[in-house]
Amino acid sequence: MKKLISAAAVLFCLMSTANAKDIVDTAIAAGNFNTLATALKAAGLVETLKGTGPFTVFAPTDAAFAKIPKAQLDALLADKAKLTAVLTYHVVPGKVMSKDVKAGMVKTVQGSSLTVATMGGVKVDNANVIAVDIVADNGVIHIIDTVILPK
Fold this sequence. Notes:
By secondary structure, the protein is an alpha+beta fold. The chain has a single domain (2-144), classed as FAS1 domain (Roll), CATH 2.30.180.10. Helix content is 40%, strand content 24%.
C-alpha cells in the first residue's frame, strides 16, 4: 500500500508541473528522481533530454536506484560510457502514451531493444511500470520501480 501511495504522490506532483517543463525539469520537480538527475548530469545527458524530442522515458525512482548495491552504483556513476548506455536504454524515441503500448520488443535510444509485457500490468524488462503518461513539453515519462540494464 505504501508503494501505491508513494507512486500516487509522485504522479500528482508530476502532473501538476508537467505541462510547463521538459522531461528533466518535470522529473526534478517531483523530488523522487534525485539519483536519476545525478546520473543524467554525470553522463552529460541533461541537455539532450531537455531537447525538442519527443522522448519516452522509463524513469526509475530513487527507490529503484537504491536496489543497486552502493559500490556498484558508485562504479556505474563513475563510468560515463557505461552510465550513458544504461540511461539511454531507458529512453525510447517518440512520445508513446500508455494507450499506445503494445507487448513486444521496443528499440531504445541506446540501440538495443527492451521487452514490454502487458499481461497483469505493464513491465519493461524486469521493471514494473507504476505510473504512466506524465506529459512534459518534449515527451512523456512512465515511472518504473527498477533500473533496467541493456542486454
